[in-house]
Amino acid sequence: MMEKNHILSILVENESGVLARVAGLFSARGFNIDGISVAGTLEKDESKMIISTYGDEQILEQITKQLNRLINVIKVQELTDDESVMRQTILVKVNADDSTKNEIFRIKEIFEARIVDVSRNAYVLEFSGSAKKMEAFIELIRPIGIKDIVKTGTIAITRSKK
Amino acid sequence: MIKENKKQLMTGSKILIESLLKEGVDTIFGYPGGAVLNIYDELLNYRDKLNHILVRHEQGAAHAADGYARATGKVGVVLVTSGPGATNTITGIATAYMDSVPMVIITGQVPTSLIGNDAFQEADTVGITRPCTKHNYLVRDVEDLARIVKEAFYIASTGRPGPVLIDIPKDISSNVAEFDYPESIEMRSYNPTYFGHHVQILKVVDELLKAEKPMFYIGGGVISSNAANELKEIAEMLDMPIVSTLIGLGGFPSEHALFFGMLGMHGTYAANTGISNADFIVAIGSRFDDRVTGKVDEFGGKAKFAHIDIDPSSIGKNVKIDIPVVGDVKSVLNSMLEILSLKSKEIESTQYKRMKWLEELNMYKYEHPLSYKMTDVIKPQFVVEKIYELTDGEAIIATEVGQNQMWAAQFYKFKNPRSLLTSGGLGTMGYGFPAAIGAQVAFPDKMVFDIAGDGSIQMNIQELATAVQYNLPVKIVIINNNFLGMIRQWQELFYEKRYSFSKLNVNPDFVKLAESYGAVGLRANKPEQVEDVLKTALSIKKPVIMDFVVAQEEGVYPIVAPGYPITGMLLV
Questions:
Q1: pLDDT value for A2
Q2: Euclidean distance between the first and final Cα of chain B, in Å?
Q3: Number of domain units in chain B
């Protein structure tokens, strides 16, 4: 069976310890968490977790079933590339001097990134995009000199039916 | 008179106990400590309604509640204190979790204001028990307590049963609230599926009628869903051969002509060979454990699989399933019976195929039955056979783990569901004796045995005081070979007889040990003494330890080396 990345959207009851339950399940059963993002929804008593994981179809089925066994888990859904919009956000602090500024601006334009902090020798760029674009963005930024970098896990939402 | 509308104010302790009574609890197993003193104080007021069994170690409480639950089908209840009280129950909770036993464990916790401060006897009980409970709760507000107890019992006893823990900080047990026990319960995120999908069930029935060599492979789910009668009805209707997991024993009568024994690592030749030749295997409330399947790729290699289980995550976990049926075993079997009731012609036409198949299986049974050789030293299998004879298969048998467990499983012919109490999943030495105590509390008049080894009995021997205190006439059978017998056997077979730390050079004199606790101790050194010792023990209305000095080198056979296909049995 083919191993690949999967994005799971997990709706949970917003109770203390629920993140530990989900994360503990992944580690106890030897599943991977490549990325995770958790936040409240519009409902006060719900949270949504978006977890990126890796494995074949059978592993994905087990993960989904095991998640559903957790009492606090309301719904588990796999989000596929075709049917959903996926984004990661990155903040990256790059060296900015006269020799690199033009290049930074060029990349910012191409990727529609934003400069959110400016100091004498460093800029902070904010960029949001798919995992693929994120990789391309980082590859272009890297030669300029990255001082620090922080990235969110993937967040994703289903597309509306056309 | 105008009815007082206002609900009564109660302390958390009283709310807890009243809630337990609402759940029909009449027995709890526990051990007091600082964080549960409020609750214990209130317990004294309920002595006539709630029987509290004081154990000698919290692990004993957990196993006793487990034995009580397995023997009765009710939820076993444990009450212990914070910190060490809670951590001492972990093995018992994990044991219950692995074998899907309904339990509610109530632990004390340090007062809310001290949580996280490394306070005296503080442990993160909810954190520690998260991976070995079906669910757990830390009560943060006394107002939530009644609802949480209601949910805990509901979760523990429905779906795939399991242990649920409630951690109660000391201030919560003294704070007051109105007591309002919820009548019903609705949980948005927990709705077990009871009724199997009709189309899937039809497929199973069709395949059963089509198959040349079908077989039922039953597990603990048959027992926890109380489906033994339905199973027997279907099996007899279809002449369906049955093999069982360890935990499934008693789900179908062992002496029945359609029963071919336990399968797996120490399964019978007929069960292991049979399932390997079957062309359609219906797993019923069983979970394809590695001790059952052996090398999993070759398990049931010639067969299609159907799997009936209430837990969807059990289906397709280890073996690919052709026809999954998510549902309660009893309900699914009833649906199958309904469908089959309209198919008497089709059933009739399977009779010849079935006869041939049963003939084949009976030949396997005849070729290599379970056996042992009598000598002038006591053989463990002989002891178990004698227990079976003398109790007519009507006793409740608890076991420890190791050779004693496997001999009990092989040579006691279980007639009834809930008559075998054994730790199958976790394999907990020290489980059997307290579990037997729990069962004896539930059934004071039944014969309850713990079949033990000289190693495992010492893991919870302190509970002898509990048995004596409550006058529980549990019969402890020690298969005494002065060895950790199963370890010794593996070392003999798989480690070139390098007996690394498996000999118990020092053991207590078990007869004197029994006497020192105020129990009765008996010993047999020769085969001809076995029956007398057992008969004497059965005639004594007290806990009895029987020390059977057995052949040291005796092994459990058949045995399949770990990782090998189950057809690769060493027979003797």
A1: 85
A2: 80
A3: 3
**B392 shares a domain with B283:** no
* A66 shares contact with chain B (CB less than 8 Å): yes
Q: What are phi and psi of A69, to 5 degrees?
A: -70, -25
**What distance in Å separates residue B330's CA from the closest CA in chain A?**
21
Cis peptide before B558 (omega within 30 of 0): yes
Give A65's contacts in chain B (Cβ within 8 Å).
312-313
- Contact between residue B251 and residue B261 where contact means Cβ atoms under 8 Å apart: no
CATH at residue B294: 3.40.50.1220
Domain that holds residue B156: 9-178
Strand partners, B280: B214, B304
Q: Do A20 and B155 touch (CB under 8 A)?
A: no
CB contact under 8 A, B130 and A17: yes
In a domain, B558, yes or no: no
Helix (H, G, I), strand (E, B) or coil at A16: coil
B174 and B31 assigned to the same domain? yes
d(CA B258, CA B239): 7
Give the separation between CA B572 and CA B569, rounded to whole angstroms: 9
Q: Which of B122, B143, B178 is the last residue of a domain?
A: B178
* Domain of residue B56, CATH code: 3.40.50.970
Residue B280 lies in a domain: yes
**In sequence order, what are the beta bridge partners of A76?**
A10
Mean pLDDT by 10 residues, chain B (572 residues): 67 98 98 98 98 98 98 98 98 98 98 97 98 98 98 98 98 97 92 95 98 98 98 98 98 98 98 98 97 95 97 94 98 98 96 97 97 96 98 98 98 98 98 98 98 98 98 98 97 97 97 98 98 98 98 96 94 84
Q: Tell me, yes or no, whether B93 and B33 share the same domain.
A: yes
Query: Is the domain of B409 the same as that of B476?
Result: yes
Pairing outcome for strands B280-284 and A146-151: unpaired
At residue B128, the pLDDT reads 98
User: Is there a single domain that holds both residue B287 and residue B173?
Assistant: no
Out of A24, A28, A72, the one facing B189 most closely (by C-beta) is A72
Tokens of B260: 């071919």
Which positions of chain A have pLDDT values less than 50? none
- Find how far residue B322's CA is from the centre of its chain: 29
Q: Residue B435, SS3?
A: helix
C-alpha dihedral (B16, B21, B25, B27), degrees to nearest 10: 80
ipTM of the modeled complex: 0.91
Statement to judge: residues B115 and B223 lie in one domain? no
CA-based nearest residue in chain A for residue B124: A17
Q: What does DSSP assign to residue B378?
A: B
Rounded Cα gap, residues B174 and B181, in angstroms: 18
**Domains present along chain A, CATH in parentheses:** 4-79 (3.30.70.260), 85-158 (3.30.70.1150)
pLDDT of residue A5: 92
Q: What's the longest Cα–Cα distance across chain A?
A: 57
The answer to whether residues B449 and B545 touch, using CB atoms and an 8 Å cutoff, is: no
CB B475 within 8 A of CB B390: no
Asked if B545 contacts B521 with a C-beta cutoff of 8 angstroms, the reply is: yes
- Please name which of B466, B199, B138, B172 lies closest in space to residue B323, comparing C-alpha atoms: B199
- Show the beta-strand stretches assigned E in chain A: 4-13, 35-40, 46-55, 73-79, 84-95, 114-118, 122-129, 146-151, 155-158
Last residue of a domain, one of B178, B206, B232: B178
Q: Do B188 and A62 touch (CB under 8 A)?
A: no
